[in-house]
Amino acid sequence: MLVSRLSKARAAFSSARDFVSAIETKESARGRLEHRNPWSNEDLDISPRKDWTWGWWDYAAFWWSYGFSTGVWAAGSSLVSLGLTWWQAIICIFISHLLGAIGMAMHSRSVATYHFGFPVASRVVGGLRGAFFPVFVRVLVGTIWVGVQLVQGGYFTAVLLRAVFGKSFHDLKNTIPAGQDITVQQLIGLLVLWTITLSILSIPIPRVRIIYTIKSVVFPPVVIGLFIFCILQGRANGYSPGKFSTSAPTHDATLA
After folding, report:
1. How far apart are CA 134 and CA 132, in angstroms?
2. At a CB cut-off of 8 Å and minimum separation 6, what does 130 contact?
3. What SS3 class is residue 85?
4. CB 185: neighbour CB atoms within 10 A?
5. At 127, is the secondary structure helix, strand, or coil?
């Protein structure tokens, strides 16, 4: 199988046409069509039964690991920095995620039943052309969010590279102006993470579920350990849990 994939990869770079043919979305999830349909392709068609590989445990693993992601943690800390107390932030996060979970469950019912994706589900409401708008908004929001995640992850990757390569990596000359708010080490970390992420994106959805299964086991203790480390570092530097809020607690009508 590996030899076959390497052979296909070499063939894809033999010419510009072969490269486009290798990366383009196929005409249909069930093979070539007699007449090409501009409103359909492999990603938009109903998934064939062989691709129904995700079970309830895979979705549970996906959302369980998502709950430990840095994005969720950052949401809580941002609320605290805006003036909420820790328990107010927890309540806000709980309510928002509960409402979001209800909305996603309701919206995903048809998709789970008929096995089509978000762009097709949007057509149910807006029609063929009206579905372009929610898809465009999703692409826009996703682009911004992925950019934020890559920068955050790149900084963490830079720390990891420093732990692996030590002083030689830490002492790299920084030729990037200070006003850019990024160092050479952080830029390298971002590029390394981006390369790894790009390669993972090439894995088909039916096969990527194993990654979330592994993540659901490995990620929670790592994040909890990092949280404990940050608390201990804060205590060592003279901070206490009550001092983590950067502004005065918000009360009464100001909460609105």
Report:
1. 6
2. 122, 123
3. coil
4. 22
5. helix
